[in-house]
Amino acid sequence: MIRLDNVHKTFGTHPVLRGVTLDVPRGESMVIIGGSGTGKSVTLKCVLGLVTPDSGTITVDGQDVTRADRDEFLSHFGMLFQGGALFDSLRVWENVAFRLLRGSLKKPREEARAIAIDKLRRVGLRSAVADLYPAELSGGMQKRVGLARAIAADPQIIFFDEPTTGLDPIMSGVINDLIREIVVEMGATAMTITHDMSSVRAIADKVAMLHDGVIQWSGPVGELDATPDPYVQQFIHGRADGPIEAVR
Amino acid sequence: MTLTAPVASLGRSTLAAIASLGRISIFTARTLRHIATPPFYLREFWQAVIAIGWLSLPVVGLTAVFTGAALALQIYAGSARFSAEAVVPQIVAIGMVRELGPVLGSLMVAARVASSIAAEIGTMKVTEQIDALVTLSTHPMKYLTAPRVLAATLTVPALVAVGDSIGIMGGYLVATTRLGFNEAAYVKNTFEFLEFWDVGSGLVKGAVFGFIIALMGCYYGMNSGRGAQGVGAATKAAVVAASVLILAANYILTEAFFAS
Ligand SMILES: Nc1ncnc2c1ncn2[C@@H]1O[C@H](COP(=O)(O)OP(=O)(O)O)[C@@H](O)[C@H]1O
Ligand SMILES: [Mg+2]
After folding, report:
1. What is the best residue among A41, A54, A212, A247 to mutate for testing ligand 1's pocket, by most ligand atoms within 8 Å of CB?
2. Which stretches within A86-229 are classed as H helix?
3. 2.40.440.10, 1.10.238.10, 3.50.50.60, 3.40.50.300: which CATH number matches A1-75+189-248?
């Protein structure tokens, strides 16, 4: 269970998070929607401890994330970064198997490679890709390698930052199914950021909308269409006029 | 207001300099701790040895051969004023191994290596690769900084040794072909007067300069601003800081080693 309580974060003079409160129960898939630049990525980074909140508390299974044993804590996490964040000095399979090649989860190279190739196949990439370098791949392929790396060590909590941005509709469908499968089969807790409404409907148990530094609305995905909340309605229908200003 | 403005800006930049000195000291202490404690990333270490040591050989060699050659010409011209041309081999050797080998070699390595380390790590920072390392339970200082700093500290002395030899050879070539020195006598004079500490002090300097080079590359890379502009600024700052620190450290080490 991930719990954010009244989290604030300001960069310079620019307040990004102004009291984010959100609960993600274990084994559920939470999708965060919201305009670009509203602090969705920053929210995930706060949970991972990559960004330190100015105030507020974040706990995972009751444990304060700033006080946890970092290695132990992070070994349960997988994260797909918005830009992929692949290590360009390493081959694709070494990226995917990064966690399995060093540290507490270290496995023999051959075994790690086999796992990497299996994970690559699950995100729709053939084994020939394994020996290429990230720079040799298209943006969408890099994204999928990032996804394979996030799930390589079978984490209990997985964060996906815009997993389908830049993918064609068919590949988006594959990735949506995969994320759903990971949550259902592995019982993982997932937080996904997306702008893609078909993704929201395919992935989410619950949806939260971030706007103006706070969670504007949250609820089960089934209530998304029926909610009268004007912010949600404007966002899911992509209307230019409404309470959310187009110039931000 | 206007009268105190220069004083205020001087004060501000002094404070900023002291603050960054403090940050660099903390960064240095952390680096040393990560070098000394496991886990050790051998693969990254060997890659750094190749990138810093092996691939710097051409530039260090070329620098040394031209420096040694020019040195021989200058010392010949200077010593001819008081008919002491015979000292050319000894002075070339001492000048090369004590000062010019380590200093010029390291400055060239700084230009090549501090910049590339800062650009690489800075790019990793702005493309979230450093964040990704952390989420994969790998400490960026241990994985990126420690292997590079250790590799530079160990390989730059080796580069200095190669540069010394090539520089002396450059002097030998000019002296024997252009200045009429006898080949065998030149070699004999070079080595007869050279003491162990002449060479040894230069190698110690090389180790210190290597440490400075990689440390500055890593420090400015890790603290790179956002975007391409941030990486560009970090790269420039790394080369400038490494070069200035090398020259300052050279003076301090020379005082410590040779001022009696
Ligand atoms: N490390 C940082 N330093 C300064 N500003 C940042 C940093 N990270 C994010 N921001 C700012 O915070 C805001 C929210 O960013 P982000 O969370 O990436 O938005 P999004 O909701 O599109 O994911 C943006 O205005 C961004 O410029
Ligand atoms: Mg984002």
Report:
1. A41
2. 92-96, 109-122, 139-151, 169-186, 197-203
3. 3.40.50.300
